[in-house]
């Protein structure tokens, strides 16, 4: 058995698909009455649920949609035998688990029955109200909700990362408006167009995306925040940006034509065809006049664009001020002036209590030693003073040099030192 091409062999290598034919036969056969062997029935049901879940997790993001017939073919044995119980397992999973849901039920939950969604889907590839889009009763289309969430986030990430161009217009810091056809072109190769459009449906339903026609072209506004629908200002910015891009291209082409005429004029003059050179010079003058008008219009359009963007920034600033004012008012409502006055009175009372306690402690400290007689303190001071004088005399004695036959002046010095000693 070729394990490399056998999907179940890779997902469930613990099963001996070649030798354990009895177990393989049980797994691929229809479900029997559950009451006959409840444990075996649960094991078989869990086997196929986990196998389908592991297949959905394969790859970087995994598939978004699939049909039961498609999965049966993927899980078929090398001899072509398909699991006859898989449809029943998927039907139960669609009812009992949040990770799997039938596509028609999901679309009703996303509320994508409006006209914009039909237009968008027709642009993607015409899948609405078709078996390819919804499947049929016998073979419905299922959706892995976790994969749909991951791919939807990937769509928003790719759209918001696009740089400004003729197909992309940035609106502020967290939004971008781009052509629906350009958004479709951002689809990863591993994902089908149906799945990519389903991701768009999810983003629209959650408020992260909005679709609107501008100048007969379908545009999508993608935002980092929810419920940021495309308004008239956004449409005006898209139109003005489109006009700006067209004018820039026209001016650039006119400048190239002017340079080309200059070269031709020089060639005619060198060749001696003065009349022809004069005619070309007249054409260049008319072209330069047209260019000057286009540049003037371009300047006015860019100035208008800048004014609109500044107005948007000012609006954001005003909204921020309003939010700050509301927050401050709410904070002040929580504490009235009476509450503040009561708080200050309490603080003053506590401060006075603290001062009284400090004074009491200071009084207790000063009372320590108040019973000592003042005369005893004076005597102690005299003794300390006499001790210091004795230390000074001893230091002076250390400095004396005593000779064998003291000189009269040394005798006088010794006598003076002896008289200084305390009795």
Task: Give an overview of the whole structure.
Strand 4 and strand 5 (175-179) form a beta hairpin. The model is unreliable at 122-134 (pLDDT under 50). A four-stranded antiparallel beta sheet has the order 4-5-7-6. It folds into four domains: 1-97, no CATH class; 98-229, Arc Repressor Mutant, subunit A (Orthogonal Bundle), CATH 1.10.10; 233-323; 389-423, no CATH class. Helix 7 (115-124) runs antiparallel to helix 11 (193-206). Helix content is 66%, strand content 8%. It has helices spanning 7-11, 21-28, 38-57, 68-74, 86-96, 103-110, 115-124, 131-134, 145-160, 180-185, 193-206, 232-271, 274-334, 337-367, 374-399, 408-420, and strands spanning 65-67, 100-102, 141-144, 168-171, 175-179, 209-214, 217-223. The termini are far apart. It has 423 residues and is α+β, with helices and mostly antiparallel strands.
């Amino acid at each position: 058995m070729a394990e490399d091409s056998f999907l179940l062999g890779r997902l469930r290598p613990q099963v001996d698909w070649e030798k354990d034919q009895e177990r393989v036969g049980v797994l691929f056969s229809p479900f029997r009455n559950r009451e006959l062997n409840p444990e075996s029935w649960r094991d078989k049901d869990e086997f196929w649920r986990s196998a389908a879940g592991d297949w959905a997790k394969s790859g970087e993001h995994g598939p978004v949609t699939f049909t039961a017939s498609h999965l049966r073919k993927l899980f078929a044995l090398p001899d072509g035998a398909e699991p006859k119980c898989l449809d029943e397992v998927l039907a139960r999973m669609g009812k009992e688990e949040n990770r799997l849901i039938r596509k028609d039920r999901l679309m009703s939950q996303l509320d994508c029955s409006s006209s914009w969604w039909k237009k968008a889907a027709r642009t993607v590839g015409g899948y609405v109200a078709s078996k390819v889009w919804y499947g049929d009763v016998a073979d419905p289309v299922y959706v892995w909700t976790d994969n749909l969430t991951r791919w939807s986030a990937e769509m928003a990430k790719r759209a918001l990362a696009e740089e400004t161009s003729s197909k992309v217009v940035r609106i502020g810091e967290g939004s971008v408006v781009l052509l629906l056809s350009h958004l479709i072109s951002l689809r990863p190769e591993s994902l089908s167009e149906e799945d990519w459009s389903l991701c768009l449906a999810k983003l629209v339903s959650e408020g992260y995306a909005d679709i609107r026609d501008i100048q007969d072209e379908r545009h999508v506004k993608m935002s980092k925040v929810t419920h940021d629908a495309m308004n008239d200002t956004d449409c005006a910015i898209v139109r003005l940006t489109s006009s700006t891009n067209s004018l820039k291209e026209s001016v650039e082409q006119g400048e190239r034509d002017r340079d080309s005429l200059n070269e031709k004029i020089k060639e005619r003059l060198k060749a001696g065809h003065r009349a022809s050179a004069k005619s070309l010079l007249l054409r260049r003058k008319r072209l330069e006049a047209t260019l000057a008008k286009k540049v003037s219009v371009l300047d006015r359009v860019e100035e208008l664009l800048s004014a609109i963007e500044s107005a948007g920034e000012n609006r954001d600033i005003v909204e921020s001020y309003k939010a700050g004012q509301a927050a401050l008012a709410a904070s002040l409502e929580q504490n009235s002036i009476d509450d503040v006055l009561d708080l200050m009175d309490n603080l003053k009372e506590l401060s006075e209590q603290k001062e009284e306690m400090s004074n009491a402690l200071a009084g207790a400290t000063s009372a320590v030693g108040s019973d000592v007689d003042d005369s005893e303190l004076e005597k102690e001071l005299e003794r300390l003073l006499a001790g210091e004088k004795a230390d000074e005399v001893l230091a002076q004695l250390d400095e004396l040099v005593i000779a064998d036959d003291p000189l009269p002046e040394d005798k006088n010095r010794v006598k003076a030192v002896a008289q200084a000693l305390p009795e």
